[in-house]
Each structure stands twice: as C-alpha cells, then as structure tokens.
Records
---
Amino acid sequence: MSPYGVVVCPRCKRAKGVDLKQKTTTCSCGFEIRVTPARVRARAESARELAPLVGRINAEVAGGLKAYEQALAPRKRRRSQDVHARVLAAIPRTGNRSVRVRTAAVELTRELELFTFDDWTRVLAGLGIPDPRTALDALIRTNAVFEPKAGFYRTIGLTA
Ligand SMILES: [Zn+2]
C-alpha cells in the first residue's frame, strides 16, 4: 500500500497531499478532511512525488468544474433558440395562413406548455407573418388559445 495520497477538500475543492497513516488532515481553508480510502484520488510512494500529483488533481478538479460550468451555462440561451427553431421547423412553409398560425400555437404549447408573447412574436417573425398581437387575439377570440395566467398562453389541445 502506498504510504502517501492526495485528497480533495470537500469544502474548497483544493487537493492536498497526505500521509495516509493520518486519519484527518486540515486543509489550508481550515476544513478538517477525513482521510478515507474512498476520498484518496491518487497515491504516491514518497512525499516527493506528492507535489506534482497535487498539481495534477487540482487541474483535474478545475477542468471538471470548468466542463461542468460550460455544460450548464449556455444551456438556457441555447434552449430557447432551439425551441423556436424546432417550432418553426414543424410548421408548413406554405399553405393556409390561419392553419400555419394555429400550428405555431400548437407547436409552442407542445414545446413549452406555456408560451409568452415574446415566444409568439419570434415564431411569427420566423414565419414572416406580421402583427403577432392581432394573430394571437384572433386565436384567443375563437378559443383556440387561452391565457391560463397573465402573459402565458397555450392551446386547448395539441392539434391544429
Ligand atoms: Zn479546503
């Protein structure tokens, strides 16, 4: 069994070299880390080998966090672009305008459950249909779309 190891502080996520005979070690942030086999991220035969290992584990933790943050951060923006693109892709390019408008409302409901006037405006702009307010009001008047809470719309069913 290698006598030295690297553990990662659960509080500040910094790696620290330890003598594995110790039961605990105090991180530079003040947190007392319990040294358990599950927590040992790397092992070393000598104290001298610890420093480069600590550096590598720190880079791995930072890389993992960065990848994780990158995976999370742009999702929201990308999601809304994807939604409008998917909705537009589902609507016939040609044909009866009122069918296309109803299909837009159905597809937005399918994607979002509730859509906003902003979603509606973007999709109608993508279809090249002017005056989204009038188009939406017409759907509300004919009970094709309702407004279950202020500013949020959906169709009654999922067929145009
Ligand atoms: Zn710490």
---
Amino acid sequence: MELKGKEVLQATKEQIWSLLMDPVTLAKITPGISRLELVEEDVYDAIAEIKIGPVKGTFGGKLRLKDKDQPNSFSLIVDQKSKIGNVNAKVDIALDTASAYESTISFDGKANMSGVLASKGARVMSGVASSLTKQFFAALRNEIASTEFEDKRSNIETDPNIKESSNKSTMTHDIELIINGETHSITVESRSVLANVIREQLRLTGTHIGCDTSSCGACTVLIDGKAIKSCTMLAVQAEGLAITTVEGLSENGMMHPIQEGFKEEHGLQCGFCTPGMMMTSIDLLHRNSNPNESEIREALEGNFCRCTGYHNIVRAVQYAAEKM
Ligand code: FES
Ligand code: FES
C-alpha cells in the first residue's frame, strides 16, 4: 500500500522538526499510541491500538528514524506486530519552506501488511491510513498552535513573491490558477481553500460547498484529470495545475455526455450535489469506460446526494459511458 501526501503547516521547518523529534510530543500526536519509549538513539518501542472497522488490534514493535538530515528530511521505519497481522513500512518525510511562516511536509512510502490486515483489502486499509494521517496532522497542527516557539522567525527563507500584511497572520500570494483552460492571476491568502477561491473570488459557483468535513463531495473538481475535493486543497497548492470545474464541461454550446446523462435520466433533483457527482463520474469514466452499477456506486461513495436513491444518477453515468 502506498502512503503519499503533502500538508502545509504554519511553522518553520525547524519548529516542525523539533516537535517531531520530541518523544513526548510524538506520543501525544500519533493516533492510537499508548506507549512510546525511546530505547536507543532514534529507536522507539511503541504500542498502539488501531481500529479497522469492527476489528481492533494492539500493535507492538519498533519505530526507527533513519537518514536524518535536520531539519530537512528523515525516514520512518515501522515494524509492528499484532494478532490481526503485522505492518512493515518505510516512509520518507521531507520538510520544505513554503513561505515566511509556513512549511510543507511531504511523505512518500510503502506499507506491507499480513494476516487479517492484508485480507481487509487495499481500499479499506488505505482508508484507515488516510484517516490516521488526518488525525496525526490535525494533532500536529494543534501542537504547533499551542507551542510557544523561542524564535518564531528563525532560519526563515523569505520568498520575494510573498507579501506580508500588517496583520502577521494574513499572508498573501500572487498565483496563477488555470481553470477551464483560462489563466486567472489572483492574490490569495496562504490559508485560502481552493473551493472558496473558485466560488467566491472567481465566481465559478457551480462548485458547491456542502459540508466542513470533506465528506459530501459537492466541491469536487478535476485537477489534472483526477477528481479532487477542492475543499481539501489550498489554492496555492493548485497553482500551475489544470483545474476543470462544471462550467468547463460543455464545448461549443454542446453539453458534455455526463451533463446530457443527468438531464436525460433525471439524475438530479435539487442539483446541489450534481456538479460534484459529474466530476467524479468523469474521472471514473476515464479510468473505466464501461463501469457496472456497483463500480459506479463505489466511485460515487464520496459524493452525497440528500434527495435521491442514486438510481437515476447511476443511469446517468451509464448513459454517459455509452456516449463517451
Ligand atoms: S465541501 Fe468539500 S467535501 Fe463537502
Ligand atoms: S440532487 Fe439534491 S442533493 Fe443531490
């Protein structure tokens, strides 16, 4: 199973490094950890309780930090055993300066599982991994917010493109977003979420915001052809990528087959969820030109419609599959 991602944190690389290398903080922010003890340099004995659906496992084993290049990178080696299976993983972690007050933390690695864990399937396990990762970064963000760092601005590389406002918590960036083939040069705050920028700054209001928990899918757009919930991405992260919103689907006044499908098969009622449904469906149809009903329902599980039973939505996607 691949473990890959990137997060933006409001701290310098040195500050993040100091938190990650502190055993007390690490124990506090790592989900499920009941014991984390430094047994030799860069080697921890760890016990963690992880729940996978109805199955609960107590994991015990070692966590090792390797190839440390302070404050830029290190590798995390996980070797954990439990009754429900073992986990071995190696994840490379890299810190980069994003702006005067922000850094990115990227992780890239692989995990191998055995036993019941392996039989749960890659999809379930990657869901568990993504939820644990979310919890970890949420806790790390809280820790950053509550820590009084000695020097808020130590070793900061200042990017000339970054403007500081008089209010230090508001940093702005001049960026170019390519949406539906058109380049928009705009100024956004570091914290601006892509969904809000698309709707409020660029007034492309077909992209909706239906929740604040990244669960409804109403904000889904295509980014480099992949369906992405635009509420889970910062606008600055989307710079230079090809974004398609529902407004970009029709060509020369002709509806896209998926739009036609929703119209012909009555796939929408209030329509709030429809743009997100369509973007997710297009991603599916690019990967699978003839999906069956269960594949369509599985692809759309991250898109909630509050007013239909999905029957007509499935038919709409099947209609588009025939036309595309
Ligand atoms: S607004 Fe993005 S998932 Fe709900
Ligand atoms: S059509 Fe109304 S929420 Fe889906």
